[in-house]
Design goal:
By secondary structure, the chain is of the alpha+beta class. It has helices spanning 14-30, 70-98, 103-108, and strands at 2-8, 35-42, 47-54, 59-66. The protein has one domain: Ribosome hibernation promotion factor-like (Double Stranded RNA Binding Domain). Strand 3 and strand 4 (59-66) form a beta hairpin. The chain is elongated.
Length: 109
């Protein structure tokens, strides 16, 4: 999977990259996604982690903001993204079981 990292008003440490890489490996087993973009932003009193995942059927975006810790914000965003990926996979499986078209799933979601 191709990973891109962007740090806005912060540096992306190797620890944050390793955390994102291990989570993306886990998410990659669930979906057939090819590209991920991790954006880490530090504002005045909060930290924001945004993860965008590009898949065949479209993109999945998860964003999480916390008050103190960048690692916690990234962890929460990755867990949210994993839940969304599992939900999208289950929807696609149920669409196939009912005989629907998977491409309409992206338009519905």
């Amino acid at each position: 999977m191709i990973m891109e990292y962007t740090g806005r008003h912060t540096t992306v440490t190797p620890n944050l990259k390793a955390q994102a890489q291990t989570a993306m490996e886990r998410i990659g087993r669930v979906t057939g996604c090819t590209q991920a973009h991790v954006i880490l932003t530090e504002d005045k009193y909060r930290t924001i982690a945004e993860v965008t995942l590009q898949c065949r059927n479209g993109s999945i975006v998860a964003k999480c903001a916390t008050a103190n810790d960048m690692e916690r914000a990234l962890h929460d965003a990755l867990m949210k993204l994993e839940a969304q990926a599992v939900k999208q996979k289950d929807r696609a499986a149920s669409m196939r079981a009912r005989g629907g078209d998977i491409r309409t799933l992206a338009a519905v979601a």
